[in-house]
Amino acid sequence: MIKYIYYMEFCKKALFFTFISLSLLAGCKNAAQTQTDESEFSLKKIADAKNGEIQWTQELEKGRLSKKVNRNDYMNPAVAFNPDSMIALDAGKNFREIYPEIEGFASLDIRDIDSDALNLVQSFFSSFIKKKECDEFMESNSIFSLAIFSFDLNQKNIDPSTCSYIIGKGYFSDNAFEIPVRLYNKEKFVDTKIYIKEIQFTKQNDKESDKKDSQIPSYKILDIEIFNEGTFNKSQNATQNR
């Protein structure tokens, strides 16, 4: 009988502790669920508030991406509209040429230089590098400019016979053409401005039936001015000699 009473007391205590445990677990679960719901509600509220503050604009090209494009105003309707035909269309357009440019010197676009003026500059520097007589390229009152130019190169320890030259884009300035020319060797360079002037020469027409004289334009060098100089590092030298 006593054992039975102890057994009943034990069962009661076990049921009591089991009830308490289940209650605690249920309470924690409800608290966690409530906290999660409140967090989600707060985030949703913040997102809705931010969305309401955004000033949306109207579509610039409504239906642009959904519209089917099957023709081009510059293409024959009989030509299929596809990537290949578009490439062919672009190939037929006129694009502006892009010419290389040497930083600190000039663009290498020499299309605007008159052929006679370009020939004068090329002939002068070819002769100068070969140490030939160059007085004929100079305007009669500007021979001293050639002497000063030669003296300046000597002061800079640059031997013209070791050099090459590059002609840059020319400009018209003060009634003369200004043409930049870089004179360089493996170690140094000097950038010069060559000022040339158009001179008219009178030439007798060879035809016997036409006795009129014709004016033949030519050019002479007025001045040679050094405006920049420098040395090459190894990487620049490799690029320059390509």
Task: Please provide a written account of the structure.
The chain is of the alpha+beta class and 242 residues long. The chain has helices at 2-53, 83-91, 115-129, 143-155, 234-240; strands at 101-102, 106-107, 164-167, 171-173, 176-184, 188-204, 213-231. Strands 3, 4, 5, 6 and 7 form a five-stranded antiparallel β-sheet that branches. The chain is elongated.
Tell me the overall shape.
elongated
Beta-strand percent range: 15-25%
Task: Give me the secondary-structure category.
Answer: alpha+beta
Main sheet attributes: strand count, strand direction, barrel closure: 5 strands, antiparallel
Topology as a string of helices (H) and strands (E) = HHEEHHEEEEEH
Regions with little confidence, pLDDT below 50 for 5+ residues: 211-215, 237-242
- How many β-strands, per DSSP? 7
Please, how many helices?
5
Helical amount: 25-40%
Mean pLDDT: 76
User: Termini separation (Å)?
Assistant: 115 Å
**Oligomeric state:** single chain
The whole-angstrom Rg is 44 Å
